[in-house]
Automatic annotation (TrEMBL):
Residues 186-362 form the Hflx-type G domain. Mg(2+) binds at S199, T219. It comes from Pyrococcus yayanosii (strain CH1 / JCM 16557). It is found in: Cytoplasm. GO terms for molecular function: GTP binding; GTPase activity; metal ion binding; ribosome binding. GO terms for cellular component: cytoplasm. GTP binds at residues 192-199, 217-221, 238-241, 306-309, 341-343. Monomer. Associates with the 50S ribosomal subunit. This is GTPase HflX. Keywords: Cytoplasm, GTP-binding, Magnesium, Metal-binding, Nucleotide-binding. Belongs to the TRAFAC class OBG-HflX-like GTPase superfamily. HflX GTPase family. The lineage of its organism: Archaea, Methanobacteriati, Methanobacteriota, Thermococci, Thermococcales. Its main location: cytoplasm.
């Protein structure tokens, strides 16, 4: 598939040409040319009429299969561009959804992608019906008014059915999440911009082999794995990568997946520190925007600056300081930062920050249990192992047990009549 790409930069904010080209390559397209313009959005064509003439000449000379815009097009703009260029028109979010479709493997991911596609198509079909009624014979994908109306009904029906199925999956996930919490697990979500290295980090922490490639949107299916963080039971979940200006319809479609971030005890926000600061800044702010939209900024957030092996220690330290300053200016409180290289397995700094953060959670505390009746020791140890992590046992006339336990799960111990009090971590 051969394409011509078009990027309209806002006067005060330039889009990333490199990211747009990477998206096109991820979709498997051959890029014939990229046309760029800096201007405010034109209401009719998105780009200006003069630049449209330039694109028209390129289309005539290069004969691409599609013209892909890096900007979001309104249904009216997409139709006007098609009338002028007489070639298939696609915008950035159609491009992203096409990549999603190729990457989706599980039933949930496929349903989410289908829902997002239908939500995208809905205003296009409505625009087609409006134009037909105005006397413009512009159906949807060559369909007449009756067929287009029927397709609109089908979209609404199918969206309803998908939402029902996703709600069932969401409910099942909630049950699993509650069971894990009851078993004493701490829940950690990996979040961040696409291709920041989240899946590679998951593999290193859990000694797994989840698919991790140097390409955009490798992960669409939620992956949860367990590991022990210095004796503590932890579940870590890899989530779909963010992208700049993530539209609400994609956030809504992937809500059941992104919900893992909202429900996590700790969020690890992975940032690619190997890129120039303007790119690091743009992607960090885009990630904060998504977390804000998800209402997840009240979670403890640790920023993991990944790929520091590709830059010097001084450069990584400067970016760490700038991220802390940027977060403060945006009124975002971070629980800590860590410089890591997931590819090389250098994650010690992250593990240190994670442990400090977990120990500060209200739900997970160090307790000291004193048992005066020897016959109760075995029963208490059994309960502790089922709801927490044993740290030490001192046997004697009065047995002392030190263990990390979720504060809300000590009811079974108190029923036994043992002395139980919060202790200070060593």
């Amino acid at each position: 598939m051969k394409v011509v790409g078009v990027i309209r930069h806002e006067p005060r904010r330039r889009a990333s040409r490199e990211e747009f080209e990477e998206l096109l390559r991820s979709a498997g397209y051959e890029v014939l040319a990229i046309v760029e313009q800096v201007r405010e959005e034109h209401p009719r064509y998105n780009i200006g009429p003069g630049k449209l003439e330039e694109v028209k000449k390129l289309v005539k000379a290069l004969r691409p299969d599609r013209v892909v815009f890096a900007n979001r097009l309104t249904p009216s703009q997409a139709y006007n561009l098609w009338r002028e260029l007489r070639v298939e028109i696609m915008d950035k979010w159609q491009l992203v959804l096409e990549i999603f479709e190729k990457r989706a493997h599980s039933k949930e991911a496929k349903l989410q992608v289908e829902l997002a596609n239908l939500q995208y198509e809905l205003p296009l079909v409505k625009e087609a019906i409006r134009r037909i009624r105005l006397g413009d014979r512009a159906g949807f994908k060559g369909m007449g008014e009756y067929q287009t109306q029927q397709y609109l009904k089908h979209i609404r029906y199918r969206m309803g059915k998908i939402r029902e199925e996703l709600e069932k999956i969401r409910a099942e996930r909630a049950v699993r999440r509650k069971k894990r919490e009851e078993e004493g697990f701490v829940l950690i979500a990996l979040a961040g911009y696409t291709n920041a290295g989240k899946s590679t980090l998951l593999n290193i922490l859990t000694n797994e082999d989840v698919d991790a490639k140097n390409q955009m949107f490798t992960t669409l299916d939620t992956t949860t794995r367990r590991f022990r963080l210095r004796g503590k039971k932890v579940l870590i979940t890899d989530t779909v990568g963010f992208i700049d200006d993530l539209p609400p319809f994609i956030v809504e479609a992937f809500h059941s997946t992104l919900e893992e971030i909202v429900k996590a005890d700790v969020v690890v926000l992975v940032v690619d520190a190997s890129e120039p600061w303007p790119e690091v800044r743009r992607k960090f702010l885009a990630s904060l925007d998504v977390l804000r939209e998800l209402k997840a900024l009240d979670r403890p957030i640790i920023v993991a600056l990944n790929k520091v092996d590709l830059v010097g220690e001084e450069d990584a330290g400067e970016k760490e300081a700038l991220i802390l300053e940027l977060a403060e200016r945006r009124s975002v409180t971070l629980s800590g930062t860590a410089k890591i290289s997931a590819r090389l397995g250098r994650v010690e700094e992250l593990l240190e920050v994670l442990e400090r953060t977990i120990l500060s959670l209200p739900k997970f505390r160090l307790f000291e249990i004193k048992i005066r009746e020897p016959e109760k020791v075995g029963k208490v140890l059994s309960i502790v192992r089922s709801i927490g992590e044993l740290v030490a046992v001192e046997y004697g006339p009065e047995t002392t047990i030190r263990a990390y336990i979720q504060a809300g799960m000590i009811r079974e111990l108190t029923k036994l009549g043992v002395e139980l009090r919060a202790a200070q971590p060593p």
